[in-house]
Amino acid sequence: MSEEEARAWLSDHFSVSRGTWDLLERYVAALLAEMANQNLIAESTRAHVWARHIVDSAQLLPLTGSAGQGPWVDLGSGAGLPGIVVAILSERPMLMIESRRKRVEFLDAVIADLNLSHARVYGGRVEVAPATHAAVISARAYAPLPKLLSSAMHFSTDETIWVLPKGRNAENELEAARASWQGVFHVERSVTDADSAIIVGHAVKPKVRKGRG
Ligand SMILES: C[S@@+](CC[C@H](N)C(=O)[O-])C[C@H]1O[C@@H](n2cnc3c(N)ncnc32)[C@H](O)[C@@H]1O
C-alpha cells in the first residue's frame, strides 16, 4: 500500500472531516519530530508512516463494530499505535497503557496538544494497571499471545473484543495459545500487508491443567 493509497483507504472507510485530517497530520508530525528524542517507529518505516502505522492502526476500528459500551484499552501503546489513531477516529473512551516513562510523556503531550479529552494514559505495567471492563482490547507488537492474554485478563469480560495485529505467524500463535486458552478467535487479513493478520475475538479464562496425579 502506497502513502497515497493509505490516505485513500482512510477516506473510503471513515468520514474523515477536515478537522480529523488535521489531527492525523499533527499526530504524524509530532511522531516524526519525537524520533529525534526516542525510537518510536522503525527508521525504515518513516517514509511509509501513513500505510505502515496510521492505516495499520485504523484498520482495527471496523473490526470492533459489535463492541458494546465501554472503554477501549490499548496495551503497550508506545507512540500511540493504535491508541492515538483510534482516539482521533472514534469518540470511544481510550485508555492507553505504557510502561516507559518517555513514551508516557509523549502520549500525554499528544493528548493535550490534540485535545483528545476522551483519551488517557496509565503509566505503568499492564499487569498492575487497575482493572476496568474493556469493550475492546488492542495490542500491537506488545507481547506474544499467551503473555498478552494473561497480562490483561483483568480488563476482559465475555463481551470484550480483542483485536491483535500479528505478523505472518498469527495462525501458528493462535493454534499454540489454544492449548491453554479458551476463547473464540478468528484471523482477519491485514489491509496493509498481505502476509500479516489480525487476531480478533473473545478470550475466556485459561483452561486449568490437571496434574498427573
Ligand atoms: C514494540 S513496542 C510497540 C508499541 C506500539 N504498540 C506500536 O505498535 O508501535 C511495545 C511497547 O510495549 C511496552 N510494554 C512492554 N511490556 C509492557 C508491559 N508489561 N506493560 C506496559 N507496557 C509494556 C513497551 O514499553 C513498548 O513501548
TrEMBL record:
Keywords: Cytoplasm, Methyltransferase, rRNA processing, S-adenosyl-L-methionine, Transferase
Any single GO CC term annotated in Swiss-Prot or TrEMBL for this entry: cytosol
Positions of S-adenosyl-L-methionine binding: 76, 81, 126-127, 140
Single GO MF descriptor: rRNA (guanine-N7-)-methyltransferase activity
Reactions this protein catalyses: guanosine(527) in 16S rRNA + S-adenosyl-L-methionine = N(7)-methylguanosine(527) in 16S rRNA + S-adenosyl-L-homocysteine
Enzyme Commission designation: 2.1.1.170
Top EC group: transferase
Compartment(s) where it occurs, according to its Swiss-Prot or TrEMBL record: Cytoplasm
Lineage: superkingdom: Bacteria
Family affiliation: Belongs to the methyltransferase superfamily. RNA methyltransferase RsmG family.
Function: Specifically methylates the N7 position of guanine in position 527 of 16S rRNA.
NCBIfam families hit by this protein: rsmG_gidB
Protein name: Ribosomal RNA small subunit methyltransferase G
Organism encoding this protein: Sphingobium vermicomposti
